[in-house]
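A quick aside before the break. I want you to see a complete sequence-to-structure record at least once, exactly as it would be stored in a machine-readable document. Don't worry about memorizing anything.
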Amino acid sequence: MAGERIVIGLSGGLEGETLIRRAMKALDGAGGGELLAVHIRSAEGASVESTSALESQRRLVVELGGSYHTVAAHDTVEALLEFAGHVGATRLVIGQSRARPLARILTGGTEARIIRGAGDLDVQVVPHPLAGRGTGRRRQRNLGRVRVAVGFVLAAAVPVLLQLALAVTEHSVATAVLVQLAGAVAVALVGGLWPAVVGALWSSLLVNYFSTPPVGDLAIHDPQDLFSLAVFVGVSVAVAGVVDRSARRSKEAARARAEAATLGELARAATRAEDTVGSLLEQALDVFGVRGAAVFSGPAIRNGAASGDWPAPGDRPASGERQAPRKADGETGRRLLASAGELTESERGGTEFGEHTVEPLDDGTWLVLFGKAVPAADSSLLGAFAAHVLAQLERGQLAASRLEVLRLAEGNTMRTAILRAVSHDLRTPLAGIKLAVGGLLQTAVRYTPKEKQELLETIDECSDRLDGLVGNLLDMSRITADSVRPLLKPVRWLDVVPPALNGLPPGRVRVVLPPNLPAVDADAVLLERVIANIAENAVKYAPASDIIVTSAAGGLSSAVLNGHPAGELRIIDHGRGVPDRNVPAMFRPFQRLDDLSQSTGVGLGLAVARGFVSAMGGSLAAEETPGGGLTMVIRLPLSTGPDSMGPDSLRRGASPAASQQKAAQ
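That is the input. The structure line, written in tokens, reads:
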């Protein structure tokens, strides 16, 4: 992708909006590109992030056309650099650290670590008002391997150093015990339980040998000295136990906070309209650190079946390890419903898998994560993801069912209207024809030439009505089946308006069009039919009004279609008009202007007109005429010459004669 690709590292603080706007400014200055915001959620940082601030920042990023991501990781710096490298970022925007100056000196600062590890990636550190003010909440750190190792080193060194300090002056056994107790507590605070136990035993030996009479001997003759050493060891071990338990509880609480934050984000996402199964799978990639995720449907197969079988719900081993589909020699019968990330063809087909994790959604649907085995500690979080994915699948099925029900309801309404049309609009002219023909065939009745002429005119008029009705029905069926293929070419309004009005009573429609109107891209035959249908409607429903066919004021139109200039034709009447609430219904098939409330009848003229205009890439709209009445506005793209003909027609080599033949069918 050309242009910049900027990644914004969001810490979860209020400064995130400043970073987003600074990154957007840099993106505009670079001439465009892609904006990605990522929040690295760690167990330590979950307690200091603001959920409301992150949600606000997510909305801002989406409004600016970017994408928002959440990644779960233990080391935020490594995860941020890994994400930036994975998406191919050209610049990384981060905020100045909120840590206090002393903490930055001791730890080196987060931005310094990012800059050292960024390599060729440009890193922009943005100052903000919260920099250097602290996070507002002390982070609880768990006992890691390095800290325990340091604890063992201190357990060996601190008692010796303290004993050397005691050797400088005379002291009692109680003094030695208290000094060594202070050292043991320090070791416990740093290294936890086992380093403190080792340090306490080592300190007790030193106190016994150097401070307890007889000095230089491990034997203890005074029971009080023995009791003091016992209390010393007991207190040291007790303090170490408290520190170790506190660290473990802190770790569990931090994990719970991170998990709760992720679940909260899932819950918020479920309420958003843009939330889909695909977006949930994308989120799972970030949260669980996997390369791919997919949802499959298929029959539930028990463990221990043929190679490639998948477990049925409830068949996971008690150890918490998840079984998953293995390599299959043939087809598995699985169907891929949704996927995200990087999947091989065999993985998409459900036949062969590498390292992966499976979570059942229901008896026949499975969530599969590719690239790693999700640890058992994250099973509850994975279960929550599975529940949300299943809810989205069910929501999609309900939406599809609703659309199907609506389609069936519309079909039933249309069939009912067609039956009424057959019973009324077809039978009425047929009855007129039959009556007139029957009268002419009566041998016992003598008709004058004038009466015969009237009967013949009745037959002709009823035949025209039948022909128009059948033509509209055929046109509507073509539009509904999306089989209208117009032959677009430059057409001038004055070339199609007069022929379209030939079937109307003379003098009923006035044409006021300047001779220099620019041509539009249209199918002349279809455009004539559109104008004729609209004009016939106007004459029928505004019998006492003048009908005017004109263009925009001065012949110049400012109309635009899909960003391109358009030509405009207006058919104006001053009849009773149509209320705004009934305008959409006016364009529906089998809808009459004079019985909108009944939603039945034929009334195909405007529906056919709009369908033909849409097929030509234009629009047909209804506006209120100033002073009362209705104005129908036809807009079609302005022609740029013969090269602007429709691509479908050009590829098929269609001719005007072929277009006329299709329109007549």
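Two observations worth writing down. Residues 14 and 383 are 31 Å apart (CA to CA). The domain at 403-479 is CATH 1.10.287.130 (Helix Hairpins). We'll return to this after the break.
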